[in-house]
Amino acid sequence: MSGTTCGICERNCAVPEGGEGACGLYRRRGGVMEERYPHRYLVATPVSVETVPLLHYRPGAVVLQISTTGCNLCCPGCISTTLVREMDGASPALRHLSPEEVVREARNRGCSGVAFLMNDPLASFFTFREVAKEARRQGLAAGCATNGTFTREALETLLPHLDFVNLGLKGLSQEVYRACGGSSVAPVLRNLRALHAGGVHVEVSCIFRKGDEKTLEEVARLLRGVSPSIPLQVMRFLPFEDAEASLEPSIREAEALCAALRRDSPFVYLFNSPGTPLLHTLCPVCGRVLYRRDFYGPMGARLMDAAPSLSGARACGGCGAELPFTKGEAFREAEFREGDFLGGYPFTRALEMVEALLIPLGVRDRGRVVRAWEEVLTGDGLMRLHREVQRPESYPGLVRRFGALVGAPREARELASYLEDRMDRVRLAVASAPRRPRAYYAMGKALFALKGERLENNLVELAGGESVNKRLAFDGRPGATLEARTLNDLNPEHLFVSAFISSSREDLLRDCQEAGVRVEATRRRQVHPHPAPGWDFGSPRWILGLLHLANCLHPDRASFDLTSEAQEFYERFYGREFSPSGLNRSFAKPCRGWRWNP
Which of 191, 236, 291, 540 has a CA that sits 20 to 30 A from residue 556's CA? Predict the structure, then answer.
């Protein structure tokens, strides 16, 4: 690509010799655009194809996820900010892999393809094109998840090497694309049509913000015009970074939208909504459940099972209707499971958890955060982090370790001592309780149970409750959807819901009524959302959630003033007032207005 225009994406930056485009990822040298960090990967790990996410392409297949850093756009509330804006592309945490080495790793790890996801392949266009070409040459599939803002010329050079694409729409308005640094949706729709016409398997994802049902209805109509077989993945908006919390629709609102869309577009799926049945595939003719899926972290799904007659087939075993699926894999692959922080967007949550540890220590420059990330991404650092963030008793030690790492030992001692003091106060308050009330912890909808080993359930026990989740045995990330009878057998006296992906008390009670859940918690209306996001996982603010749990489980013994406690925490560790109106779903940033030092 030559001339003065970059020519990779539709931002069409004018780049002089020696200069860079708006994304900072390419420069012009010798009259030609080149990548600044070619063939350098932050992630190269096997994932299920449902993590891309793709639902109709070889269900159950395992592909090698590759991710670099950066993005050509800058969208408000981006879930991948740690990856696309804050990680340094020159960091030693990234490793160099040639296209041949990437494909060799895919083969050695039993993958049937290579998928670029989490950050956009437009951030590493030449690198991805070479990898895709090599993968196809060696008989593997190649594809990506992308915002789709390729120039016509760039896509023409990439398309012959693609098998599958998840194309993500930001919306349909000019305003939403300009807010991201783009121009309009027109190039994305042009590329959608070109990909489909070129024989690439395409699935479309689109963000659903509160009150924006009309946009999704129009997207569904547009897709039917291209092909009624293209799946539409509705991504319920989760507000991160500087996004307003008011933009997040409830799960029930999103379910109502998707149910309505399915009347005309049968292959509509709902993401970011733990416990929803709207991730399942139903036969559009007879209504039989063909593929059953569950929530598997933000933007991800998990294949649970399929109708037996579908193994390797593309027709409904009930009525014989033909289905728009690329041939599925053997269930040996469908049973593959990623590690807790490995693969897909949970990796970005791990990076944000590290930020969440450092910001209360007064860390304001991203360079110190990157140094901490480099430590975590070395050896078994991610596994160790996952273990330590699950146990309240080990968390103060984690704070001290990271404080020493970034040169803030005094601040770390203060935060660790605060956490230990509040835990001691809770222990003292509930020590004389005659019994431990049974408590169940959900995420999103009432039937999605968090794994017993997670921090939330350990907080329940520290607060003087019995975590019934610990009686459950299942494999999931971060949990799994239960049958109503299973929850009824547990008969919890209290029902708590995650402060990360949550629902109102009224919605949870309706969920239970509709699902046939009949337990003490619902009879007594002892159903407890947290007072604020981030109060039970992902940041040291879990200590505030612990106080809330104690108040709910033992109101006769624990009466912590949550507003005063939150105010003290924010003033001591964030240097600002606690204001619920400024909060969103971010783990790390204490409020929407928080910024790194320039």
Answer: 540
Handedness of CA 277, 279, 282, 284 (dihedral sign): positive
Q: Where are the beta strands (DSSP E) in 482-597?
A: 494-497, 527-528
Count of other CB atoms within 10 angstroms of residue 82:
28
Supply 122's token pair: 């437009």
- Is the CB of residue 148 less than 8 Å from the CB of residue 188? yes
Distance CA 398, CA 407 (A): 14
Side-chain-side CA neighbours of 76 within 13 Å: the count stands at 16
- Who's near 182: CB < 8 A, 6+ residues apart? 10, 11, 73, 147, 149, 170
Distance CA 283, CA 243 (A): 37
User: How far from 415 is each of 400, 403, 409, 433, CA to CA, in Å?
Assistant: 9, 10, 10, 28
Predicted TM-score (pTM) above 0.85: yes
Q: Where are the beta strands (DSSP E) in 237-317?
A: 268-271, 281-282, 289-295, 301-306
The structural domains of the chain, ordered by start, are 1-36 (no CATH), 37-334 (3.20.20.70), 346-430 (no CATH), 438-582 (3.40.50.1980)
**pLDDT tens digits for 539-561?**
999 999 999 999 999 999 999 99
320-352 pLDDT tens trace: 898 898 876 544 444 677 777 778 888 988 999
Read off the pLDDT of residues 488-521 as tens digits, 9 standing for 90 and up. Answer: 999 999 999 999 999 999 999 999 999 999 999 9
Angle at 314 between CA 309 and CA 319, to 5 degrees: 60
Number of residues that make up the chain = 598
Q: What angle do CA 226, 55, 155 make, to 5 degrees?
A: 50
* pLDDT tens per residue, range 164-212: 999 999 999 999 999 999 999 999 999 999 999 999 999 999 999 999 9
Q: CA torsion angle for 554, 556, 557, 562 (degrees, to 10)? A: 70
> Which contiguous run of DSSP H or E holds residue 46?
strand 43-48
Instruction: Give every CB contact of residue 361 below 8 A, 6+ residues apart in sequence.
Output: 399, 402, 403, 406, 408, 411, 412, 415, 573
